[in-house]
Design brief:
The complex is a heterodimer of chains A (about 120) and B (about 110).
Chain A lengths: L3 E4 L2 E4 L4 E8 L5 E7 L6 E7 L2 E5 L6 E7 L2 E7 L7 E8 L11 E2 L3 E5 L1
Chain B lengths: L3 E3 L4 E4 L4 E7 L6 E7 L6 E6 L4 E3 L2 E6 L4 E6 L8 E9 L5 E4 L3 E6 L1
Parallel strand pairs in B: 2-11
Antiparallel strand pairs in B: 1-3, 3-8, 4-5, 4-9, 6-7, 7-8, 9-10, 9-11
The chains are: A mainly beta (about 120), B mainly beta (about 110).
Chain lengths: ~120, ~110
């Protein structure tokens, strides 16, 4: 059981498609994150939202576009992706994100994305 | 040099053994440290935070050595269910905040 729910679990799309990944957390947290996990590579932090404001964008290509309409929901809009974008995309949440950040993050099950 | 480095393993040890692995980090200003556990094809889950004074949770002991810039995880009396990948996580909050995951150490406990 997880308090962070991601949909869809699997997604196959062509390079010209537009799709969105969805994340919802039921933990009352104020910070949400997108991570990318590629095979044989560590998790890479992509975006951080704290109280609905984007605080971090770790040099992510513009073909990935996040949206955080409220503290409980986070989206990742995808368009014109490349084959190297195939990976597991994980959403996480924590109480908040700030100076001296020392909180646990709760992860969703992830969306396994394959780009044809 | 990677910001966070872990021995990828795999560590293959018998049930009941004690196993330890380290994680080194490059930025001396790093502020908080964690061990997460990730089972195959599952999401990471927090195992324990790592405090300066060291901390213990049952069979698990975590330590932080700021002078040498590493954290460690010790697992005593290992169980089959401890088989997983253990991820070291280091955070740094500054003008460019970072949450950095290590590549993980694979642990396999054999009967």
């Amino acid at each position: 059981e997880t308090g962070v729910t991601q949909t869809p679990r699997h997604l196959v799309m062509g390079m010209t498609n537009k799709k969105s990944l969805k994340c919802e957390q039921h933990l009352g947290h104020n910070a949400m994150y997108w991570y990318k996990q590629s095979a044989k590579k560590p998790l890479e932090l992509m975006f951080v939202y704290n109280f609905k404001e984007q605080t971090e964008n770790n040099s992510v290509p513009s073909r990935f576009s996040p949206e955080c309409p409220n503290s409980s929901h986070l989206f990742l809009h995808l368009h014109t992706l490349q084959p190297e974008d195939s990976a597991l995309y994980l959403c996480a949440s924590s109480q908040d994100f700030g100076q001296g950040f020392n909180q646990p993050q709760h992860f969703g099950d992830g969306t396994r994305l394959s780009i044809l | 040099r990677k910001e966070v480095e872990q021995d990828p393993g795999p560590f293959n040890v018998p049930e009941g053994a004690t196993v330890a692995f380290n994680c080194t980090y490059s930025n001396s200003a790093s502020q908080s440290f964690f061990w997460y556990r990730q089972d195959c094809r599952k999401e990471p889950k927090l195992l324990m935070s790592v405090y300066s004074s060291g901390n213990e949770d049952g069979r698990f002991t975590a330590q932080l050595n700021r002078a040498s810039q590493y954290i460690s995880l010790l697992i005593r009396d290992s169980k089959l269910s401890d088989s997983a990948t253990y991820l070291c996580v280091v955070t740094l909050y500054s003008s460019a905040s970072k949450i950095i995951f290590g590549s993980g150490t694979r642990l396999s406990i054999r009967p």
